[in-house]
């Protein structure tokens, strides 16, 4: 709707703009009318056409305005009809969209018409500007009148349209207000729906939290049932143990009499021996002092004896455990030793293989060194050859310089000869002018012809030599290019060699660093081994000292009590020895594993170094191979260059020989010229004939060249003679030879420079090869050092391993010897005990006095039986408690079924509540429809009042009142129904909450009962343990009393009764076993009690966590309820602001709901407070239990420390044990302080809250 309104407003703006354009065009037409005054009458039809166009334009505009007005009226009527019926908003929107589309189409047509008219106006303007003729004043007047009329009509239409538009705007504003009201109502309903949905979600969350609580309760009940079952099992086990103990007591009764007799006899004999020994002593004063000191120490010793007896039991159990552990440890040590031997063999084999591989690598390195030396020798030989060739080249260069000097001299001689020949020719020409001068020429012709023939042959040879020199020049060029290419390749290879050299240097540095690290690790391992060996030696020395002290004490104390103490000390020391042996074994195993790991690491590092060295060797071999290939290639190139130099030298020799021939010819010519000069004084005929014969004036001469002595270009003007051509050719060829000789010299110089550069490169390569050799030698030395280090490390490791094995074997031997010694001592003591038993057999006749004591012991045993009967009664009570627990389980199951039934009822109630919410939504929808109908009825009533104000005023009032009353009654009925349903839901919720509270109270009661029963069980267990400990203490006291009586009796030692003491020994062993079993049972019961305490603490902690989770969930629920209350308050405010005319019934309903929510909030707050108090009380109880446990453990630790300080010998092991106990005591004290601090903090928090 808003979009369509916006489009309508845009269309109105566009219409206004078109009106403005029409006004502008009307003003333009008025300007055109004034301009057309000066136009001629010849253009009347043009003016008539303009008038017709203007009329059409105005008519179209008027028609369009009428259409727009009609369309606006239609829209206003549609809007009015829509306002009457709010249910037909969708149809109104569709109609508005159609109207908007029609307006847009018409607006587009209008724009098109305007564009066409503008074009026509432009065309008319052009025609007017071209024609410049005056129009008729009458037509202009008519046009003016029509314009005035059109303007008046247009103004009236615009006024009407404006009035209609104002009406439409008013109606539109009304419709907008109505739509706003409708949207507000819809928003309120949507808010209400959201609130209802939020409440549903909250209720679902509450239900889920309740289900979670039920599940937690069920889990707790299952845990408690499991605990009860475990208690039943423990009680059954305890009954079985009680029966077994009864049987053992019966057996003890049978053996007690006999043992008491034997013990009394032995103690009597021992006392007699002691008395005799004391009688032998000199002074009785010392005895009295000793007795006084013993009496002073007796009180402490009694307590110590009790503690020692308990300690002996524990030590016996520990001794048995340690013996089994020692056996297993010995077996494991044997297996480990076998494995270590196997590993050592494997490692020795690996070392052998590695040493063989290293030897192979050393052989390969030696072979490579030999090959490198061979290559160096070859390079030295090639260098010598190159130097020899360089010397040859220098010689050739000097020879070339000499030849060039000779050629220059020959040229100078040729120029001199040419000058002489020119002078002779002039003379001959002068003589030819004279008659009768032909004879001498004929006479001279034969030798001159021979000379021409010889000279022609020499020129051909010279030409051939020149061609050959050219070919050699081209070959020298190709050689130069090849040498340049080879130089570039050598430069590239040199760069590669430098890169490889740098990489090798970096690798060497890395290897040096690794070697340093390995050396540091080996030193650290050596230090550790030394420390461990020193510690082992110290421990062995301490053990030896202990043994000496024990032997000294054993020699000093021959009494029975002293023997028992010695036995206890020996057992303690044996255990300490075994512990130290185990520690030493563990240390040895750790050291062996550490050495193995270090050995493996060193092996890996050596393998890596070997691989790197192999790679370096391969790289060096490749570089050496490349250097050898380059040296061979250079040798080949040097050979080719030497061969080419030889060819050039040959060619130069040939050219030199040719030059020598030319010089000879020149000399011959000079001789001939000298002869001619000599004969110049003869008659002219002979001279002319000789000159004619010399230069070949006859036409039959076969040679047309000039002599070698002629200069270049000397006699070109003399065309009639044949000698001019030959001389010019000779001069040219000599010039060419000179040039080629200079080019060859330049080539030779370039070749020499190239050879010098190649020599420099070869020298550089030789230097690099020498450096590489030095580096290879250094690496070889390093490899040798590493091999030596490796061999030394291997030898050291082997030595250390052998030393460790020897030490371990020595320690085992020593321990075996110690065990043998202890066995021997035990055998001696057993023999002594047997002797005493023989003496006791002889003194059985003195045992009649002990019957009274035996009777007392039987009475005590009877008392123990009565106590066992009381324990049986306690067991019966436990069974009764188990029956009660079963009853409680059945009750809990019944309550669980009730809880399930209540959960089902809750689900049903939730469904009903959802259905009621749906009904509420339907009712809200109906209310909204009724409100819309009421608004429609009000609008209709207003319209009817406007139409029929006079006739039907009373009737409409009655109808309105009736409709209002009917609507209000329906609203009230719906509101009352909703209130009743809400009240029913609230009552059901209260009922369910009450049931939940009852269930929770019952669960608390069951928990309290179970806790009470657990306390009872614990108290019964504690009582049983105390009774058993009392019985054991009483039995021990009886035994001590019997021993004291036997000591008082005394007896004499009689030989010959060695075979009768075996049953006594068997009985003593059986009694010891029984004592050990009872101590085991006591320790097991103590462990079970401790485990039970720990389990109880864990269970209490779990309960605390659960209570904390429940409290957190309840806090969440409270937060949600608070949010719901705030939302409801906000809704109430909105309802008060938006619906001021709403009924007071709804407000009361909301107030009641608000009050009910407040009550629930207060109840849950109380519940949370109670839960918090419970949690605090439970946490306080847990802290108290923990503090009690810590105090008990502290007392035990302090007692142990006191006993150790009094009884234990002053050694390192005992000091360490004392330090451990003290550290544990300090830790316990810190824990106790922390717990006490936390408890105080909790108490302060409680006080601050209160």
UniProtKB/TrEMBL annotation:
What is the official name of this protein in its record?
Answer: Uncharacterized protein
Write out the biased-composition intervals (Low complexity).
640-653, 704-715
Q: Which PANTHER family match?
A: STRUCTURAL MAINTENANCE OF CHROMOSOMES PROTEIN 2 (PTHR43941:SF1)
Organism phylogeny: Eukaryota, Metazoa, Spiralia, Lophotrochozoa, Platyhelminthes
Annotated region Disordered: the residues are 316-340, 625-659, 702-760, 793-813, 949-969, 1227-1250
Bias class Basic and acidic residues marks the residues at 316-325, 630-639, 732-743, 957-969
Domain of life where this protein originates: Eukaryota
This protein's UniProt keywords? Coiled coil
Coiled-coil residue spans: 1-35, 93-120, 462-528, 975-1181
Bias (Polar residues) ranges? 327-337, 1228-1239
């Amino acid at each position: 709707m808003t979009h369509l309104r916006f489009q309508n407003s845009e269309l109105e703006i566009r219409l206004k703009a078109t009106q403005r354009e029409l006004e502008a065009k009307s003003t333009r037409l008025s300007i055109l009318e004034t301009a057309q005054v000066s136009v001629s009458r010849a253009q009347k039809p043009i003016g008539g056409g303009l008038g017709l166009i203007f009329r059409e334009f105005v008519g179209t505009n008027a028609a369009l305005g009428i259409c727009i007005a009609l369309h606006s009226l239609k829209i206003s009527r549609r809007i009015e009809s829509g306002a009457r019926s709010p249910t037909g908003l969708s149809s109104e929107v569709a109609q508005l969209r159609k109207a908007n589309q029609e307006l847009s189409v018409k607006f587009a047509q209008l724009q098109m018409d305007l564009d066409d008219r503008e074009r026509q106006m432009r065309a008319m303007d052009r025609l007017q500007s071209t024609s410049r003729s005056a129009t008729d004043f009458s037509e202009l007047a008519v046009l003016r009148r029509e314009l005035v009329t059109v303007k008046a009509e247009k103004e009236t239409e615009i006024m009407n349209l404006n009035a209609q538009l104002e009406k439409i705007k008013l109606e539109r504003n009304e419709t907008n207000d109505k739509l706003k009201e409708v949207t507000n109502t819809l928003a309120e309903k949507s808010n209400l729906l959201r609130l209802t949905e939020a409440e549903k979600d909250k209720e679902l969350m509450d239900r889920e939290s309740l289900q979670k609580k039920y599940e937690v309760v069920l889990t707790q009940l299952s845990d408690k049932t499991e605990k009860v079952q475990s208690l039943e099992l423990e009680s059954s086990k305890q009954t079985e143990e009680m029966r077994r103990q009864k049987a053992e007591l019966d057996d003890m009764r049978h053996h007690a009499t006999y043992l008491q007799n034997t013990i009394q006899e032995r103690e009597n004999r021992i006392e007699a021996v002691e008395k005799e020994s004391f009688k032998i002593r000199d002074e009785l004063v010392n005895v009295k002092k000793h007795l006084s000191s013993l009496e002073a120490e007796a009180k402490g010793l009694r307590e110590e004896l009790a503690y020692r007896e308990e300690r002996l039991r524990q030590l016996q159990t520990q001794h048995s455990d340690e013996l089994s552990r020692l056996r297993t440890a010995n077996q494991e040590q044997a297996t480990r030793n076998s494995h270590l031997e196997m590993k050592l063999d494997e490692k020795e084999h690996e070392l052998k293989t590695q040493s063989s591989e290293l030897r192979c690598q050393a052989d390969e390195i030696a072979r490579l060194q030999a090959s490198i030396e061979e290559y160096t020798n070859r390079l030295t030989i090639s260098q010598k050859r190159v130097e020899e060739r360089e010397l040859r080249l220098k010689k050739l260069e000097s020879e070339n310089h000499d030849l060039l000097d000779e050629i220059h001299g020959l040229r100078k001689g040729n120029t001199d000869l040419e000058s002489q020949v020119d002078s002779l020719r002039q003379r001959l020409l002068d003589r030819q002018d004279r008659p009768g001068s032909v004879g001498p020429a004929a006479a001279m012709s034969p030798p001159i012809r021979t000379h021409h023939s010889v000279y022609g042959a020499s020129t051909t040879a010279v030409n051939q030599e020149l061609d050959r020199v050219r070919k050699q020049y081209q070959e020298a060029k190709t050689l130069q290019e090849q040498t340049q290419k080879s130089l570039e390749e050598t430069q590239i290879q040199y760069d590669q060699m430098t890169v490889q050299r740098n990489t090798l240097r970096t690798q060497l540095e890395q290897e040096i660093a690794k070697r340093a690290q390995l050396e540091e690790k080996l030193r650290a391992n050596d230090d550790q081994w030394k420390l461990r060996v020193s510690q082992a030696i110290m421990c062995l020395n301490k053990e030896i000292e202990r043994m000496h002290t024990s032997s000294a004490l054993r020699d000093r104390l021959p009494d029975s009590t002293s023997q028992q103490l010695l036995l206890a000390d020996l057992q303690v020391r044996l255990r300490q020895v075994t512990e130290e042996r185990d520690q030493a074994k563990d240390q040895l195993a750790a050291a062996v594993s550490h050495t193995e790991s270090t050995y493996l690491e060193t092996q890996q590092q050596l393998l890596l170094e070997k691989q790197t060295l192999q790679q370096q060797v391969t790289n060096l071999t490749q570089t050496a191979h490349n250097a050898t290939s380059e040296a061979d290639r250079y040798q080949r190139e040097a050979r080719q260059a030497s061969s080419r130099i030889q060819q050039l030298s040959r060619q130069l020799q040939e050219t030199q020989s040719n030059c020598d021939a030319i010089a000879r010819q020149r000399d011959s010519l000079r001789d001939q010229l000298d002869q001619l000069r000599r004969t110049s004084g003869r008659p002219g005929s002979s001279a002319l004939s000789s000159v004619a014969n010399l230069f070949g004036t006859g036409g039959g001469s076969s040679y047309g060249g000039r002599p070698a002595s002629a200069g270049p270009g000397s006699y070109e003007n003399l065309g009639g003679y044949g000698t001019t051509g030959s001389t010019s050719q000779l001069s040219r060829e000599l010039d060419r030879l000179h040039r080629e000789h200079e080019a060859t010299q330049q080539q030779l110089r370039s070749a020499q420079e190239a050879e010098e550069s190649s020599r420099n490169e070869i020298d550089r390569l030789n230097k690099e090869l020498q450096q590489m050799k030095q580096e290879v030698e250094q690496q070889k030395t390093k490899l040798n050092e590493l091999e030596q280090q490796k061999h030394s490390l291997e030898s050291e490791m082997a030595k250390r391993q052998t030393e460790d094995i020897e030490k371990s074997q020595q320690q085992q031997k020593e321990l075996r010897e110690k065990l043998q010694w202890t066995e021997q001592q035990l055998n001696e003591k057993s023999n002594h005990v047997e002797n005493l038993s023989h003496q006791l057999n002889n003194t059985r006749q003195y045992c009649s006095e002990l019957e009274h004591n035996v009777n007392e012991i039987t009475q005590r045993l009877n008392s123990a039986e009565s106590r066992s009967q009381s324990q049986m009664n306690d067991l019966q009570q436990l069974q009764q408690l188990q029956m009660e627990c079963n009853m409680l389980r059945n009750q809990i199951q019944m309550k669980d079924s009730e809880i399930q039934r209540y959960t089902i009822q809750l689900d049903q109630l939730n469904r009903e509540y959802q259905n009621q919410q749906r009904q509420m939504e339907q009712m809200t929808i109906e209310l909204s429809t009724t409100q819309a109908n009421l608004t429609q009825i009000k609008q209709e009533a207003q319209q009817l009042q406007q139409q029929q104000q006079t006739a039907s005023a009373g009737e409409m009032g009655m109808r309105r009142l009736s409709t209002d009353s009917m609507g209000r009654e329906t609203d009230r009925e719906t509101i009352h129904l909703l209130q009743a349903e809400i009240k029913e839901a609230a009552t059901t919720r209260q009922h369910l909450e009450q049931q939940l509270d009852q269930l929770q109270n019952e669960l608390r009661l069951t928990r309290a009962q179970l806790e009470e029963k657990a306390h009872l069980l614990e108290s019964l267990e504690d009582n049983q343990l105390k009774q058993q400990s009392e019985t054991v203490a009483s039995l021990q006291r009886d035994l001590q009393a019997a021993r004291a009586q036997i000591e008082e009796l005394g007896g004499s030692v009689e030989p010959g009764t060695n075979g009768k003491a075996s049953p006594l020994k068997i009985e003593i062993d059986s009694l010891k076993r029984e004592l050990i079993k009872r101590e085991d049972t006591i320790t097991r019961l103590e462990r079970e009690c401790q485990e039970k305490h720990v389990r109880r603490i864990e269970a209490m902690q779990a309960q605390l966590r659960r209570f904390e989770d429940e409290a957190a969930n309840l806090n969440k629920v409270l937060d949600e309820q608070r949010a719901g209350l705030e939302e409801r308050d906000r809704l109430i405010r909105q309802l008060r602001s938006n619906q001021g005319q709403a009924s007071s019934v709804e407000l009361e309903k909301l107030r009641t709901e608000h009050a009910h929510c407040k009550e629930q909030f207060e109840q849950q707050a109380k519940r949370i407070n109670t839960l918090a108090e419970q949690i605090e009380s439970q946490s306080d109880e847990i802290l108290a239990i923990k503090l009690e446990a810590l105090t008990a453990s502290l007392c035990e630790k302090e007692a142990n420390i006191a006993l150790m300080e009094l009884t234990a010998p002053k050694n390192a092991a005992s000091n360490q044990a004392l330090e451990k106990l003290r550290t544990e005591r300090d830790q316990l004290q810190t824990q106790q302080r922390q717990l006490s601090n936390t408890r105080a903090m909790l108490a302060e928090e409680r006080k601050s809250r209160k």
